[in-house]
UniProtKB/TrEMBL annotation:
Organism: Pseudomonas laurylsulfativorans
Annotated transmembrane regions: none
Family the entry assigns: Belongs to the complex I 51 kDa subunit family.
Reactions catalysed, as given in the entry: a quinone + NADH + 5 H(+)(in) = a quinol + NAD(+) + 4 H(+)(out)
Domain NADH-ubiquinone oxidoreductase 51kDa subunit iron-sulphur binding: residue ranges: 346-391
The keyword Zinc belongs to this UniProt entry's keyword annotation: no
Alphabetical list of SUPFAM superfamilies matching this protein: Nqo1 FMN-binding domain-like, Nqo1 middle domain-like, Nqo1C-terminal domain-like
Keyword Coiled coil applies: no
Documented EC number(s): 7.1.1.-
Taxonomic lineage: Bacteria, Pseudomonadati, Pseudomonadota, Gammaproteobacteria, Pseudomonadales
UniProt-listed PROSITE patterns: COMPLEX1_51K_1, COMPLEX1_51K_2
Role summary: NDH-1 shuttles electrons from NADH, via FMN and iron-sulfur (Fe-S) centers, to quinones in the respiratory chain.
Necessary cofactors: FMN; [4Fe-4S] cluster
Protein name stated in the entry: NADH-quinone oxidoreductase subunit F
Length: 451
């Protein structure tokens, strides 16, 4: 997976001043190993953090920078760090990197881990210093075999250089780091399900509170951050809060840069580091090159399969959490998908809901039973065998599985694209409803109270 460019991207040289995440990338797409990484100022931020900054100062710097989680939820990183206990007597703490990147249409973390493994390690090292954690785990999607190989090699390089292990940089601080490959469940992207899986348990989300900062891995204080989030930390420590904030476009409430992309039948599908606040139209037209010849843009999702569909007229929205919220959905992972005019929305939604239904942990009833129910209704509509009232039933399920109705955020994310698809393309769903004469008697149909 290489970072691609198109249009203006060809005229912008990546530099440390403007592209903190990607300026060290090689043009050939090969991994940057320790010698080259250090030659490109790698681990300078870690040395600064260990030599010149108190642990609480590191936390405060990250908080002041406005860095937010890059996994999709967008929770302020410094605030999350601040939830870790201050009690010095608690000497067992853990730092977990959520690298279980299973969101459909998202591959940003994969690129960072395959090509810049030491950037992630440096980010975790600084974070561990700030949080007083003595052990870290990179919980990696099991299918990312190249990333696993590269991360393990980078860990060994860092150990040999005295950057991991005992008495790091002569500071008396110890930090061990391990790469742990998962068994392949989407639900492990939820931090407490990830913790359960790491412990060898079934990957079910946990009830909160208590939150992981109080009771996490093996009952100890734990901080969980996304790959891209942790990779932002070295630049913030090295170059400061004011510089980091200056990277975002005017109008953006989110600070720094973001790995963004576009897939689908666009001319130049790819991944780019761009400032928060860039418009979706710039991303789509200037970087992705617009639609391939013979195709028109019908709809798009701004950040993974769990975000709502938008229309071409929404492309002027700014790519940051608040900007996308203004047009009715979420920023998510920031990797957009273009839906072309040859795609039937019912078929697309049936495919999506099948994925989400399969990946449900099955713990709570709305998700366990509601998602398969939506799949059955969508299959009937797709085959022209839908019955009067099926669309209303689907909308009822969207409500019943919405935020606050289920144990975790899996089901709300699963039904958000369904609700938006019906909102904008209801006529395609109506086309799959059978004539009244062919309808099944009402008592033979599922009944949703309040739909």
């Amino acid at each position: 997976m290489t970072l691609t460019s198109f249009g203006p991207a060809n005229r912008i040289k990546r530099s440390a001043e403007t592209h903190p995440l990607t300026w060290r990338l090689r043009d050939d797409g090969e991994a940057v190993w320790l010698d080259e990484y250090q030659a490109k100022n790698g681990y300078a931020a870690a040395r600064k953090a260990f030599a010149d900054m108190a642990q609480d100062d590191i936390v405060q710097t990250v908080k002041d920078s406005g860095l937010k989680g890059r996994g999709g939820a967008g929770f302020p990183t410094g605030v999350k760090w601040g939830l870790m206990p201050k009690d010095e007597s608690i000497n067992i703490r853990y730092l977990l990197c959520n690298a279980d990147e299973m969101e459909p249409n998202t591959w940003k973390d994969r690129m960072l881990m395959e090509q810049l493994p030491h950037l992630l390690i440096e980010g975790m090292l600084i974070s561990a210093r700030a949080l007083k954690t003595y052990r870290g785990y990179i919980f990696l999607r099991g299918e990312y075999t190249t990333a696993a190989k590269h991360l393990n090699r980078a860990v060994e390089e860092a150990k040999a250089a005295g950057l991991l292990g005992k008495n790091i940089l002569g500071s008396g601080f110890d930090f061990e780091l391990f790469v742990h490959t998962g068994a392949g469940r989407y639900i492990c992207g939820e931090e407490t399900a990830l913790i359960n899986s790491l412990e060898g348990r079934r990957a079910n989300p946990r009830s909160k509170p208590p939150f992981p900062a109080a009771v996490g891995v093996w009952g100890k204080p734990t901080c969980v951050n996304n790959v891209e989030t942790l990779c932002n930390v070295p630049a913030i420590i090295a170059d400061g809060v004011d510089w980091y904030k200056s990277l975002a476009r005017v109008g953006s409430e989110d600070m720094g840069t973001k790995l963004m992309g576009f897939s689908g039948k666009v001319k130049n599908p790819g991944l780019w580091e761009l400032p928060f606040g860039v418009t979706a139209r710039e991303l789509f037209e200037d970087y992705a090159g617009g639609m391939r010849d013979g195709y028109k843009l019908k709809a798009w999702q701004p950040g993974g399969a769990g975000t709502g569909f938008l229309l071409p007229e929404h492309l002027d929205a700014q790519m940051y959490a608040g900007g996308i919220a203004k047009v009715g959905t979420r920023m998510g992972t920031g990797l957009a998908m273009a839906v072309d005019d040859s795609v039937n929305m019912v078929s697309l939604l049936r495919n999506m809901e099948q994925f989400f239904a399969r990946e449900s942990c099955g713990f709570c009833t709305p998700c366990r039973d509601g998602l398969p129910w939506s799949v059955k209704l969508l299959m009937a509509i797709e085959n022209g065998q839908g019955q009067p009232g099926d669309i209303e039933t689907l909308l009822g399920l969207v409500g019943f599985l919405g935020p606050g109705k289920t144990f975790c955020a899996h089901a709300p994310g699963a039904v958000e694209p369904l609700g938006s698809a019906i909102k904008y393309f209801r006529h395609e769903f109506e086309a799959g409803i059978a004539p009244v004469s062919a309808a099944v008697p009402p008592l033979a149909r599922p009944i949703v109270v309040g739909a």
